[in-house]
Every structure is written in structure tokens, then in C-alpha cells.
Amino acid sequence: xxxxxxxQIHLISDEIYAKxxxxxxxxxxxxxxxxxxxxxxxxxxxxxxxxILYGMSKDFSSNGLRCGVLLSQSNPSLLACSKSIAxxxxxxxxxxxxxxxxxxxxxxxxxxxxxxxxxxAASYACITSFFTDHGIRWIEGSNAGFFLWAxxxxxxxxDVIVNxxxxxxxxxxxxxxxxxxxxxxxKRAKERDE
Length: 194
What we know:
Elements lengths: L1 H6 L3 E4 L35 E6 H4 L8 E4 L4 H11 L6 H11 L2 H28 L3 E2 L11 E2 L12 H9 L14 H7 L1
């Protein structure tokens, strides 16, 4: 925040996975999610430079019911600008009704977030166990969302040939495989972090 203040850069915090957190045996002391809204900004940054983005699709596993939020508590100019174009992206009345009903049901939300956290942790345990059993290196420490860094280089030959049929089969079961170059990572960076 101080860096943004010093250089007058807007800080945009994308909190789309805010409630998709979990604990794991390898990361029992992970820092819990902290919203940028909960940080006192008075001595750090001009509040007009702090903005929050949130969308329900990730935390609620409902990609088809698009609804998002731009929260900027101290920048009326940005909000006025956003309002002028928001009318072209309004959610449907069905989506509005669904979210209003859901977000007003506190007991359901408490149950849902606890269950979501339990299931994310179980999925993490399942895939990391598989990786360990098969000698696939992975980076420990995940505690949010459903992503995991894994190193498949040991399974690939020097001359990697993409098998289109296998790639299509992987996509059919929702496995998204990408080489590290896509994410601008390098062997050195991975080894340094391990």
C-alpha cells in the first residue's frame, strides 16, 4: 500500500477466492485471508486509491450466474464512471433473485463455507497423495482456491511430443495442463522456492 501511495498507483484487490480457504497438514499456520477493506489505510495509502473486486462465481461454484462487485469506498469519480457502463453488464433478474436469497440466508452461508472448506481440503489431500505416491513433485503450502503447482518434468522425456488425443481426454475430465513457460516460471524459480 505504501508503494502504491508513493507512486500514486491504484491498488485493486481481486478477492474472488476470499471464502475458498482451507487448512492442510503441510500448512496449518497459513495466514488466513485478509480483505484489503480490513486494513486501516489512514497512514498507508489514500483510500481513494484502494478498490476491491469480488465475484460470486468462484466461492459459490456458480459460473453461470454472473454477478460481481466493484467496491471503492472513497472514490466517487470511479464509481460514477463505472455506473455509466454498468448498465451494459447488468445481471438477469433471476440471478439477482438467487443471490439476494442466498446472501440473506446466514445459516446456509455458515454451512456452505464450512463444507466448501472441508471439500477443498479433501481434494487437496487426494491430489497431493496421488502426486506423492507417483513421485510427482509439488509445492506445499496451498490453502486457498483449487490450484496447485506441480512439476511434471520427471515424467517427460527430453523431446516432449504433445499427444493431441491425450490432451483432449484430459480436457474432457477438466484437467487443464499448461507448460511452465505459459506462467512465466522457470526451473530456477521453482527450485529456489522449494
